Amino acid sequence: MTSHERVLKALNHEEPDRIPRDLGGTESSGMTVCALHALQTHLGIRQDLVVFEPYQYVGHIGEDLRQRFRIDTANLTPGPRRWTKRRHPAGIDVRLPEQWVEEEDAAGNTVVRRADGVVTARRPRGGHYFDPVNPPLQEMADSGQLEQHKELIFSFDAPSFADESLGDLQKRAQAMRKGGECVVFNLCCHLLAAGQLLRGYENFMVDLMTDEVLVRNLLDLLLEGYRRRIDRLA
Fold this sequence. Notes:
The chain is α+β, with helices and mostly antiparallel strands. The chain has 8 helices and 11 strands.
């Protein structure tokens, strides 16, 4: 039974030949590169550390590790055209999307800026992942202002560093599918998490309790944007 068949059996509430296994099929079920490096070193596996989700520094699970633990899921996430090598503060070399640009601030933290220079993500000195900062809709007073931010909301969660063409993405998907793998297509679509990142964690938690209209309208716009993305990618 192939991994694809095994996972579909389980999803259809049928009994497969064994329980399907997932490691790294999504950003949420993966490993940070520091943990991945420690595991590969322990097992004697020599493989490049490729960061496909740089906010959390989640590493791609390579074929040697997938075979070792009989992992059934294979991650397909829109990626960059080009990669670049950088040195992680922990002293390990990693490959990152070329357009993911980091710099060190005066306090020794690692920061990422958007085009206008505002810091959008910060990794504390000695930290393993980035915290979101300066949420773009944090100053919004009411739901009536959502319309002027519609394009920002529609494009949210579509990382600018993932600039590979749809044709290249399709070729990767077809190659993975031919091997019998269970391809997990990560569309980068979040709802409640997106509200937290757009409004700020505290603001959005207060919104949930006090401003149902704003929350509903924001989530409706996010859903519309995600549906457009799915139509384009799928």
